């Protein structure tokens, strides 16, 4: 039995890198991890696996050769006038780079799942900035930890234990830290909080406005705001103002509800305000394990972190128009390549309707729901299990994911599949 | 491939060649004595200026903070884009260009080597990933040490050998090139929200002062024989009255000097040469700094020239960026990095009519003109802090032409003109001096013996500009100078033609240099396990995952350290 | 004014770039030249002749040219971008970014306009006779500056973030406006004849917003000043009475909200705070 | 029929189930179950495990109901997935992001109805599936 240590987990934006994986006969037989999601991933990743390229023939998906599948995807992309290349958050930076090159070559729109998770956070950052830090700073110094509209107990199971409330840092022990949870429902995370504030749905913005008022010693002409009594808001303001190092972690509760980017604007502004009193930082709780990497790679290669339109031969960025849901709901695209994502399971119905009405190809290790709807399916190796690759943690710390077992025979990593498609696309374009 | 560049006017200060008409022969990527003219590709560069490829020792082109600048400034790029064509990938400018565009635009200026001067070790994998994506030019990155817990603890405990072993291990683990110090101790203080760290003030919870860090690191640098001196961004950057801190920092290591070699490179000194007590009494003390540098060979500087217009400031000096944000109230990014360092990013528009900005503009030029020896003062804009590197030709024209300077001086506030010395300086750079400051000297101070000159055996990194140095008088025809330096007629990198008539025609992968530093084995054997032990208490990643394999670098070029100094 | 009539042959399947269709680009050209001008449909370069039939005549100066476009232009984006003079009339609905960064002239849309109408505009007039989408009169991402001047008129309803970061000029909406009207506004005037969504004037620092209809709530970061019998929008007298609020206080702002007293009885409790 | 506010979000079971596969029983069971406060269930006259029809301005779907004290009164929580998407609109407010949280929803007991099979749901909504 082989034991691989310091394995980075390819599940959520935590990128915990202290897992031990036990391998026997090229199979993972045991995982030493403290996380249910991680353990499920390593032990179950090969379930519902399809290892043959598939192609739709007379409304049925039938096995085919890799060559044929590549040919079809390449043709689909070359023929399209406005292809959408979507996904990218559950794969390596290396694959993301290849995807950008492909999008540029075929004059398509490349968008990652940021668009439906922290896209609004990026829009907020582009207006206000990003006073942040790495998670180790939180571990070392934070005496106040605020989780706003996020639920790490479910979505980032080891976040509190490894990085924040429950970890021992150089200057701070767990008992010296206070935890505040602000959410529309009493999430599992909220149960262990020092203070839980239940905000009315879609009124986080009002609550933050009230907080800023109190921090500036201004009078509020209401008894309660967003369903929260002003005294309780004042209690939170006091906690924030008086801490030595505070951190505001926020999640989809802010980005997905009314206000979206403006909620993040308000949160960043709040943190800017708090820095007049103390040291305070803000950080989005990124979901997919390498969605941060997708933003980073796209930003350094094109200048923009998501929703990049190459149709005119250079990168253009107009989120709200070149972002996936808008492209789909306006019916702009005439073909879609989905890589390492499952939009049919994650996007609104009408966007999915358009997606399914045009040629659709999927590259994914799983037989995802989107794969069932596709015209071409190319199975790929799991990055971080069957293939090596770089990923960026939610705080931008880059890590190299390990290959712990061999992929099934004939199954290639995303980066290689994309490279084959790119080469074929170039041949087809030369012949055109 | 063999090339012969014929009939150019060559400026090659290392080999004491000053505008001599001669041919340059290139074979297999190197400068050679001669080539067989019948086999070689002959390029006629008659009456053109031939120089070694430019070497920029301080330009923020890659890494996490640069990418913060890209990511949060779509407005910086959307009007300045590059369409994909031929060998070129698409991309965007302007003050924070995308990676591909960065490589192309440097090559078009005739620059072939550019060093990223600040990388947080924990995020250096990211820095290398971006460097891999910058085509053409050779590059390297300087890891940040001035606020590193291990370093501060070793220095506090007087364990310099151990400190050297730690730095050697880190340098080769993450493939770094030189010791960079930014606001020593000041970033650690900022992590508690404290924004002003004085050179002789104790750093919170660490019991040492910035002075001790700088001295300690200079000693370590000598022990390890690193090719470049300690590269320091001093405390109090951007603050009125900070010239005293700069002088103190320089003088703090004077006794450690050996011979005429620089042991301390103080960077973008323009930002650190201010007098006054606030922004109203703000003034230039470039003359005091220049005077010190003129008398003391143990320091070199680069200028960090300001260009009027919009740009993005970015530095590991998080507290400075916070102060700048409080002045401007626009966008502000901060990125503290556990154990090691921090960073801040704030966009700015330098305005000619703004008194402070105008004084800053004067100071950069004063430094370049008042420091007599061009081997010890280098032209930078601290890209993009003072302005984008694409504006270098403008800086050259100011240095080469009093007339060009006067054109600007006429349009800045009177008080800025009066309170600076620039108007009284007559000196104008020659092509020879310009070549020293932008190539020969920078290559030398970086320890790159194959760069910055055109002698036999040098890397065939060559820039040819369409300007006749015998005919053009830069003093009068500064616009011609600017145009010529904006678009190289020819840029050659490792003996390959990269730019032809201002257009990129090839985009090969450039090298990434790093120093394979080593401390005595017995010390490393004690230090590395000790670091490993403390590592997990300090960091949030495993010790094993901190290491960057050499294979990660697209074109790895390890350098052996020099013989340790004294 | 010379009239040039363009008729869309068929609705495009992929987005078409409309920035070529301005008086600035078409003035001084023959019909033939115009038909041979290129634009983008998706990633393809196509001639205008592929997309449109053209009749009428061009003018020598942009200011003398009236371009009339017919058809379903919902996938045509950036129509009239950066135009400086003359007039465009669209008989039909139009896509995103109408009048992007325009500096002068007039655009009339006899139909609906999608999001980002008048983004970054600094002069001229845009008239939408149907509904308009989100972020009307906003600015390009990251610029922190929306519409700087000119006039936008929307007869129907508009989406969210109307006048986001707006710095100058006037926006008049005949129908309702969604949430975040006037968010981060820095100047200029917004007039909404109908109702508005929540978070009105969020983080505004200057400018004026007048609402004749219902407002679900006023942010806690606004204080009430007074009740005024009437107010003015670009010199036109508007009858009230209005609650007048100022804010956004958290931004040190001095923006003004004029809210119909009659339509907003739920704000009565705020009257207690009038000095 | 009662007016509620729809919240969609992640749940641990959905996260774990996702890694087992999007057609795994655990995943499908989780994403086709909505959570409502027990007091609200009483008012609706519903018991855990029974079926309920959720209708928004964008669509309508039948789900299983579970009691949860973690959900605010007046709210209904559905984990992200192909079922909740039926209820979500594509209006992004110019941000690229649809509203996934805080959507007005009508909740009514659906005694005679069953939770649609995932594949049936997909075929019915989007036309094609293997």
Describe the 3D structure.
The complex is a heterotetramer of chains A (432), B (566), C (275) and D (130). Chain A is of the alpha/beta class and 432 residues long. In chain A, 37% of the residues lie in helices and 22% in strands. Chain A has helices at residues 36-44, 66-79, 93-106, 119-128, 135-141, 152-155, 159-162, 204-215, 230-242, 252-255, 261-274, 291-302, 324-329, 343-346, 349-357, 369-373, 414-431, and strands at 2-7, 19-24, 27-32, 54-57, 60-63, 83-87, 109-112, 129-133, 144-148, 178-183, 195-198, 224-225, 228-229, 245-250, 279-284, 308-309, 316-317, 335-339, 360-364, 376-379, 389-392, 398-401. In chain A, strands 5-4-20-19-18-6-7-16-17 form a nine-stranded mixed sheet, with helices on both faces. A five-stranded parallel sheet of chain A has the order 11-10-9-14-15. In chain A, β21 (389-392) and β22 (398-401) form a beta hairpin. The model of chain A has no long low-confidence stretch (mean pLDDT 96). Chain B has a domain at 54-446: Metal-dependent hydrolases (TIM Barrel, Alpha-Beta Barrel), CATH 3.20.20. With 275 residues, chain C is mainly β. Chain C is 5% helix and 34% strand. Chain C is built from three helices and 17 strands. Chain C has a 13-stranded mixed sheet with strand order 5-1-6-8-9-10-11-12-13-14-17-16-15. Chain C is elongated. The N and C termini of chain C lie far apart (56 Å). Chains in contact: A-B, A-C, A-D, B-C, C-D. At the A-B interface, α3, α4, β8, α5 and α12 of A face α1, α2, β7, β8 and α4 of B.
- Largest sheet properties of chain D: 6 strands, mixed, barrel
The H/E string of chain D reads EHHEHEEEEH
Taking all Cα atoms into account, the compactness measure Rg of chain D is 14 Å
Distance between the termini of chain D: 36 Å
Helix content of chain B: 25-40%
- CATH class descriptor of chain D: Mainly Beta
Largest interface: A-B, 62 and 65 residues
The CATH architecture name of chain D reads Beta Barrel
Distance between the termini of chain B: 44 Å
Q: How much helicity do the residues of chain D have?
A: 10-25%
Total domain units of chain D:
1
CATH architecture of the domain at 54-446 in chain B: Alpha-Beta Barrel
Largest sheet of chain B: 9 strands, mixed
SS elements, strand count of chain B? 26
Mean pLDDT of chain D: 90
Kindly identify the CATH topology of chain D: Barwin-like endoglucanases
CATH superfamily grouping of the domain at 54-446 in chain B: Metal-dependent hydrolases
- Give the quaternary arrangement of the chains: heterotetramer
Identify the notable features of this structure and list them briefly.
heterotetramer, C: 275 residues, mainly beta, 13-stranded mixed β-sheet, two-stranded parallel ribbon, 3 helices, 34% strand, elongated, D: 130 residues, alpha/beta, Barwin-like endoglucanases, 6-stranded mixed barrel, 4 helices
